[in-house]
Amino acid sequence: MTALIHLPCAHPLPSYPKNTLFSSEENPIRKNLEKVEMNQWWKKPLGQSLNSAGVASFLSVATKKPHLALPHISVPDVRWIDWSELERLGFRGVVFDKDNTLTAPYSLSLWPALSGSLVRCQAAFPGKIAVFSNSAGLYQYDPDGSEARTLEESIGGIHVIRHELKKPDGTAEDIEKYFGCPASDLIIVGDRHFTDVVYGNRNGFLTILTEPLTLSLEPFIVKQVRKLEGYLVKHWHHKGLKPAKHMLLPEFHHCINSSLS
């Protein structure tokens, strides 16, 4: 039976041209536009935080299928993952979440300390790595794919899969099409129990949970949800609940680095 292991943006406001008949202070149209922008710039990150699919899934999983929220492997961050061992076991590719897994929340730049691990991952799975995010690449928040392209350039050309539905909703069809193999041959890595892990377990991935890279940039509501997730998972773990068994992972501890390099 697979066991659970635990180891020790800014959005600038656009400028509007001044009306030739009014100063910036006197122009009522411009003042109203500025007020609207001040009240709406935060909608994108807040919308990502208030994931309606995630709320519905949270209730369903917590009351009916709590094992779906339990990852096969839990690590502090991706540096602890032994990519070559996972490849040796028969896995064929890796899917990463973005926010707080590879980058700071809402950032499009790789967290510097993770660059070495990402290089090792690329060496173990050449051309078989992708990002599947609820921000960059999601049509709702990145309709023209500009964030996805910027992120791809930042992380060495790793592909960002475009998709319609937020995790944990949806199937693995887009991912399986990109990799050319079933989800059961793939690894998904993310920092959220009720989005990344639930999505991965529902669709047959090997699920690896990382701790968030930073909490300082997360909205208050996300921090509170994390606390609730942590409480529930700890409760289920103490009750002896285990994650679903994965056929390619007989010994989870072999996939964990004993030290960082």
From TrEMBL:
Q: Which organism is it from?
A: Dendrobium chrysotoxum (Orchid)
State the InterPro entries in the record.
HAD-like_sf, HAD-SF_hydro_IIIA, HAD_sf, PGP_Pase, PGPP1/Gep4
The molecule here is called Phosphatidylglycerophosphatase GEP4, mitochondrial
User: By its UniProt entry, which Pfam families does this protein fall under?
Assistant: PGP_phosphatase
Q: Name one GO cellular component term.
A: cytoplasm
Q: Which Gene3D superfamilies match?
A: HAD superfamily/HAD-like
Classification from the root reads: Eukaryota, Viridiplantae, Streptophyta, Embryophyta, Tracheophyta
GO MF assignments: phosphatidylglycerophosphatase activity
